[in-house]
Amino acid sequence: MDSDFCWNRDCIAQGECLNIHNDEKELLDLKEQRQLQKCIECDRLAADIARFQDSSNPLSPILSLLLSEYQRQKNQIQSLGNFLDTKTLEIRFLHELGYVLQSSVDLDEVLSVALTAITAGKGFGMNRAFLLLKDRETGLLNGYLGIGPRTLEEAGQVWNEISSKDMDLKSLAQNFRLNKLSSERAKFHDILEQLTIPISDTNHIIVKALASQHPVLIEDAFNNPDVPAELARLLGVDTFLLMPLISRTRRIGMIIADNFITHRRISDDDMRSLESFSFPVAFAIERAALYDKLQVELNRVTEAGKKLKEQQDLIVRMENMALVGRITSSIAHSVRNPLMVIGGFARSMLKNSSESDPRRTFIESIVAETRHLEGVLDEILNYSDSLYPTRDFWDVNQLIETALRDTSDLLTAEGYGTIYTPGDHIPPVYIDFKQLSYSLRTILQSDISGVGEDKTITITSENRESGVVLVVKDRSRNITQAELDHLLIPFSETRDLGAGLGLALCKTMLEKQGIPFLAIADEPEGIRYIITLPTHKEEQS
To answer: In this structure, are residues 486 and 500 in contact, taking their beta carbons and an 8 Å threshold?
Structure first.
């Protein structure tokens, strides 16, 4: 059989074979490869074979059979190659997905990876996905998260962005979690809010799918009697997939996936792939939820332990202070009786002695020291009483005016002047009036050494959110902060039997009432005492 076609030539020129493209010029000189790759499907060869069959040659049936079988096997090999390529990508995708799901205990990260995998083109390629999680306490399936576009325009923008950046699944999920998780939840808020289904509603299609533990493909949703009309209207699609999330035998939730934009058919292969994917997702969600619950319980236990330790410390302090109170009270009462006798005799002797009596100086000294010791005993007894403050609501102006009136004679004798500037709209404060009055008197007549030239003490009151703030400024006292802090420790100084207890007693009294007390030393400016008085009972610690 003669032929004018190119399939039987050793070499051909460019353009003689219409099936050879410009990038395949090497086939022009390679006869066998050209025949296997191009000629076997060429119409010219088919025409030659048809003429060969018409010639009644006995080899023609065998040739046709061989060519047909070759074509079938070639197509099968090509199909298997495409299948293997697809499976290779799928295995790589599942491996990457499984690594993230197995290693993460962050619920948002798990959900971001899962929903991104369902909707990404490099994943399962669905248009939208909604996640419903089961709430054990309420027995409800609640819409938790949605992902995907809502309009065709938005879909084009998102898909173009993903295509231009060429990110892998892990990067897509991370970008979604960091930049889009909140916005996606807000975008689908109206749908998620209505995706609330009681588990007890066993007739609902979603509850049925969850109970069956197998994926369910819903078709013709608007006319399907098993699909609630409100669910079909809410999703706005005729076809969607229900994918239960089951961890062992525990029902975790449900994924609703659809192709809202492209309307691509959901195949059986899609269902099988998503079903295989749902098991590690359900396990990862359960583990992340349990981890979050464990963290909450751990924080709760830690906080309870912290409060328990604080209470134990408070009990120890209260026991120590009660012991100190009993000791000081016992000592004070033991000393007071003989001291009163000594003071009484001394004052009687002083009253009956003349100015020229040589013993008068000694008697005056005894009377003065006795009075000083009686003052120390009053402080000690006040310290004992400070362990048990009695609080009520009092007027701040009355408190300050009482303290100024009680100390006016002493301050005037020492050359001091006082100025009180009350604030506007000062509310009543919840305090122990007796202890606060004592504290103010002690601050005003403090015997700290280092008297300066300016002997003016100013007091201001101001109503703030934290309470009523009293500020006492004494410019006459020059002392360092370290020395002032030292004096706030009980009995840290005992040179005059009183200098070490006055301010420390004030601090103790105020702390027992939960009242912040600051003593700030600024050598050029003197000393500032800042006391914040509560205006409500609940502000007490």
So the answer is: no
Q: How many whole angstroms separate alpha carbon 362 and alpha carbon 371?
A: 14
**Rounded mean pLDDT of 22-50?**
73
Looking at residue 21, the DSSP 8-state letter turns out to be -
Do the domains at 89-289 and 390-539 have one common CATH topology?
A: no
Q: Is 276 in contact with 97 (CB distance < 8 Å)?
A: no
Q: Are 141 and 253 in contact (CB under 8 A)?
A: yes
- Domain positions in the chain: 6-87, 89-289, 390-539
> Is residue 105 a contact partner of residue 288, using CB atoms and an 8 Å limit?
yes
Select from 487, 469, 457, 504 the least CA-distant residue to 396. 469
Phi, psi of 125 (to 5 degrees): 75, 20
383-399 pLDDT, tens digit each: 555 555 667 888 998 88
Q: Give percent of the chain above pLDDT 70.
A: 80
Cα-Cα-Cα-Cα dihedral sign, residues 221, 222, 223, 227: positive
Do you know the residue count of the chain? 541
Alpha-carbon distances of 468 from 113, 267, 427, 508, rounded to whole Å? 53, 72, 8, 19
Burial class (CB in 10 A: 0-12, 13-18, 19+), 69: exposed
Backbone phi, then psi, for 122, in 5-degree steps?
-80, -5
Domain 89-289 has what CATH class? Answer: alpha beta
Assigned fold of 390-539: Heat Shock Protein 90 (3.30.565)
- For the stretch 112-123, pLDDT in tens is 777 877 777 666
Distance of CA 494 to the CA centre of its chain: 51
Are 427 and 487 in contact, with CB atoms under 8 Å apart?
no
- Residue 120: partners with Cβ closer than 8 Å, 6 or more residues away: 162, 169, 172
3-state SS, residue 291? helix
pLDDT tens digits, 295-319: 888 888 888 888 878 777 766 776 7
Q: What is the dihedral of CA 497, 503, 509, 514, to 10 degrees?
A: -160
Q: Where are the alpha helices (DSSP H) in 55-141?
A: 60-103, 107-119
Q: What is the DSSP letter of 490?
A: T
What's the Cα-to-Cα distance from 510 to each of 186, 248, 279, 318, 539, rounded to whole Å? 50, 60, 62, 15, 13
For residues 363 and 347, the answer to whether their CB atoms sit within 8 Å is: no
Closest CA to 98 of 115, 114, 120: 114
| Identity of residue 430 | Y
Residue among 203, 207, 208, 234 at smallest CA distance from 221:
234
CA angle, 506 then 411 then 400, to 5°: 50
How many angstroms separate the CA atoms of 42 and 37, rounded?
10
CA 248 to chain centroid, in Å, comes to: 30
